[in-house]
Amino acid sequence: MSDHQDHTFEDLRNTVHEYARIMRRRWRLGLLGLTIVSSVAFWISQYLPREYGTTTLFERRDDVVLRNLVRSSSPYNFGQLRSGLALDIAGSRALAQAAITIGLLPADAIKSEKALTNEELRKTDEALGKYKLRASVRLVQSSPSLDTIELSCTANDPTAAREFIIALREGYIRRARKHITQVLTSTRDFFENELQRYQQQINETNHKLQVQFAEFHGITPTNTASASARLDTMESDCIRLAQRVSELEAQVSARENFLTSRTMCDSTETVSPTTGPTPVAAPPVLRDTDSKIDLAIRDVEQQIADAILMERMTNEHPRVIGLRRKLDNLIAARESMLTSFELTRAEQDVPASSPPSASRRLIKRDPVLAGHRLRIELELDALHAQMDIARKHLEEAATRKMEFATLYERMINEGDTTRELEGKLAEDRNNLAVWQQHSTQLQRILAANSEDRGTQFSLIEAPKENPLALKPQATAIFVVCSGCGLAAAALLIALAELTDRSFRSAGQVTRSLGLPILECITVIKTPKIQRKQLLARLVWTPALCLLVCSLIVSASLAYVSLEHPNLHDQAISKIDGVLQAVGAPSTSLEKVNQE
Amino acid sequence: MQKVMKKLRAKPLEEASETLVPAETAPDQADSTPTDPAPGDQTAFAPDPAAMQIPNETEPAPAPDSPANTSRTDDELLITNRTIEWDANNLDPSLVTYFEKYSSTSEQYRSLRARLLNMNSQLDHQMIGVTSSLPQEGKSVTTLNLGMVMAEGRDQNILVIDGDFRRASIAHMLGISPKPGLAELIRGEADLAKVIRPTHNPNLKIITCGGIADKNYGELLGAASVGPVLKRLRRLFDYSFLDTPPVNTVSDVSMLAPHCDGVVLVIEMRKTPEPSVLEAVRTLQTTNVKIMGCLLSHYDDQRGHYYERYYNYYYHNG
């Protein structure tokens, strides 16, 4: 392993030594090839066609409202427009229109409305090929409402590149605005249709809900809790009215029993009230007053009942207390009125000739009892009336309760449908509001100027006429020219070595002849040899210096032509002047540059 | 045994130096450090009309029949300790072992010397050819520098022979006339004593290529006397370095190299194509020539700079 490495290292060392020996021997030839070929290459590089580039940066700001105006699936959506940005700016049609704008193509060169025909494409390519115009688009920054677009153009002429890029940008802006206007105009009709559709849907839904709501007075059909509470109240009303009727019936029964029992007590000498003569009725004035008081009493009682049952007031409520006080006053007033009437009638209106009745007999026997009986009779009449009303109210409450129970059952059954209708109505109303808002903004946008309509363009960086060529680059030129020179030098050295059949090393002699090397005698520097060497130096040194100078000059010219074109033009004009003065042919670089 | 052989071989030389070397150029002085050439100092040297353009000889060559050499063989008597001072202005600057004796390049040649000595453990007399596949790869420079560093040893006689008749590089590098040389020796037109040239180092001798008027090199190298001449030279000197023409260019090597004990192939790095070198190797192998090894010239490996730096540090600071 070690021997192998030693051999490898030895081989490598021998190889390096051999190359070093060759270079020592052939360096003049190599330098000759390097300088000549590199100089020629550098000189030729000045004639290479240049590629100039320019760049413009502009901003496209979409209206915030319009951004979501068009559906994402629509080909007119802004997202879709953004995705086709490169084609819109630097597509074949855009390139053709820009070529027409800067005068490379006649105005009537493009006649097709949609895709370019092959003939039109060929014409466009030819027109652009004259200046080797190429455009590229890059989206530097993209957000939902803001795009920063970098438009680059290359050509063999900086002015043509600048004009072409301006034409491309302006054409894109003009087409984009026109397109947006078309989109907005077509969108306006679509919006109006949508508004009408939503309005119609809302009306239909409203109608359906109103039909259902008409049957539910004061109740939201979807509010089952409220309806349930109201049904409970109705049931309570029914129960209360039934209790009232029962109470009244009990009172009536009690009073009738009283009157019947008192009549039986007085029947020893008189007939029973049922069989005997009926007591004398109260005068009409008294009856009217009594009935009014009775009505007032019932009205107050009804108010109290409503306050307690319907309005959920307690007995301690001031209003209830006031009503009860009023009720007591009315009852007291009626008692006092009846008492005074009985007394008056007992003293003044008892004629001797009139047939004796039980009341009269009672009045005669006991006027207080007679007054009391009369009062009971009046109360019985009032109770009968009250009971009739209470029964009537009970029937009405039962009817209402039954109807409401039916409604409640429907409400339970049709609640989902109603809720759906309500949800649909709310959604339609929201949509309608959104569309109305969009429509309003659309009207505002359409009413605005063309420049401010929908999308705004602003220039960030204007294209400049860049005199420095993008291609070829100085580094590439230097690498290629130096590489050519080095390759030529290597080729020359290789050719010289290949064609040289002489011996160049002792090892070669040994290998070739198989004879031992007795000694190697170095060159004896005799004056003759020294003279030859001096002569060679005198010839070679100026020649190589001249070639190196030519290499430096041509390389400098090549560099200046790329990095400082103006300086290069001046230098070339001076060189041409010198050459013309000498009578030598012109470099013709100036003509090439002018072309 | 080797030491005994060395002593036996060195003894006549020492005796010769005692008798032949003048006092002002004692062997100790000649062997120690190379005296810096004094281009303007011509008074100490007497020109030898016979040696034609041989500069600054310090002592005339002794006559073969001199009484002092009666105890030696004729050939051994030819090897004298006579030295001459080279004119640095005429020398090729690439003789780095002469001009920059302590440079890293000189040390590289010494390293080459050490390897060759190691390869010859029997201390036999050797004749080593120096060749290359193509011209201008550094054969002559290598031969001369190698001869000079080999001659730095006291007990070794070194001979450098220029076998490249077409270019006569050795003579040009030393700034001397190629005549008389090996060609005259082969043709028998000149004596060995006249052909062997002394140098600044008594242990180093030079034989130039000589002159061929009709440029008929094949006929000359195909002569029957080539073998005996080279054998004689090999026997005389401890090491003989024969500078030969390039292998792929001419066929002289095929006739000279078989007489050598071995051949050093010079390859210039980064210049000589591999196929040419391969072709040269095949040619040498087909002629049964022993290739001792390769010498890489113009080697520009970074390692050379390191060696030079350490070498300078060692010598200048040590």
Helix and strand topology:
The complex is a heterodimer of chains A (595) and B (318).
Chain A: H1 2-45, E1 51-62, H2 64-67, H3 78-83, H4 85-90, H5 92-101, H6 118-131, E2 134-142, E3 146-155, H7 158-215, H8 224-265, H9 284-310, H10 318-348, H11 358-365, H12 367-413, H13 415-447, E4 455-461, E5 469-471, H14 474-499, H15 506-513, E6 517-522, H16 527-563, H17 565-582, H18 589-594
Antiparallel strand pairs in A: 1-3, 1-4, 1-5, 2-3
Chain B: H1 2-20, H2 27-31, H3 74-78, H4 96-99, H5 104-119, E1 126-132, H6 139-150, E2 158-162, H7 169-174, H8 182-187, H9 192-195, E3 197-198, E4 204-207, H10 217-221, H11 226-236, E5 239-243, H12 252-256, E6 262-268, H13 274-286, E7 291-299, H14 302-317
Parallel strand pairs in B: 1-5, 1-6, 2-4, 2-5, 6-7
Antiparallel strand pairs in B: 3-4
Helix pairs in contact in B: 5-6
Please provide a written account of the structure.
The complex is a heterodimer of chains A (595) and B (318). The model of chain A is unreliable at 268-279 (pLDDT under 50). In chain A, strands 1, 2, 3, 4 and 5 form a five-stranded antiparallel β-sheet that branches. Chain A has helices at 2-45, 64-67, 78-83, 85-90, 92-101, 118-131, 158-215, 224-265, 284-310, 318-348, 358-365, 367-413, 415-447, 474-499, 506-513, 527-563, 565-582, 589-594, and strands at residues 51-62, 134-142, 146-155, 455-461, 469-471, 517-522. Chain A folds into three domains: 2-48 and 472-501 and 509-563, no CATH class; 51-196 and 435-461, no CATH class; 224-413, no CATH class. Chain A has 18 helices and six strands. Chain A is an alpha+beta fold and 595 residues long. Helix content of chain A is 71%, strand content 8%. Chain B is of the alpha/beta class and 318 residues long. Chain B has one domain (2-317): 3-Layer(aba) Sandwich (Rossmann fold). Chain B is built from 14 helices and seven strands. Chain B has helices at 2-20, 27-31, 74-78, 96-99, 104-119, 139-150, 169-174, 182-187, 192-195, 217-221, 226-236, 252-256, 274-286, 302-317, and strands spanning 126-132, 158-162, 197-198, 204-207, 239-243, 262-268, 291-299. In chain B, strand 3 (197-198) and strand 4 (204-207) form a beta hairpin. The two termini of chain B are 36 Å apart. The A-B interface holds A 21, 24-25, 500-506, 508-509, 512-513, 515-524, 526-528 and B 92-94, 96, 104-105, 108-109, 111-112, 115-116, 138, 141-142, 264-265, 267, 269-275, 277-278, 281, 291-302, 304, 308.
